[in-house]
Amino acid sequence: MKDVRINLAEGTPLFQQVAAEIRRAISEGEAKAGERMPLAKDLAKVLGVNTNTVLRALRELRDEGLLEFRRGRGITVAGTPERGIVLTRVRELVAFAREQGYRPEEVIAMIEAVT
Q: What is the pTM for the complete model shown?
């Protein structure tokens, strides 16, 4: 990753800064879908932070849908920030639908009816 912008004195938590740097690398094409991410310890060394900080950032990006963790294959780029935003909204929709008493298949039928 080039032009690393981690600021230890900044008020933003380090793991969020690391996640932002990785997000930027994905959106600018430095890391493409399907590519393996470097090891967390190597990223930590490059960024000048603790390995646990990097692992926390990677888990956050996994939860956003940008990274995939696969046993034996490491961490790969799953998609773009836009895909991550859509995945977040889908999760919100599913949670809302559950609160309203809808089953997943009913939500799927509603989505298919809209398209």
A: 0.70
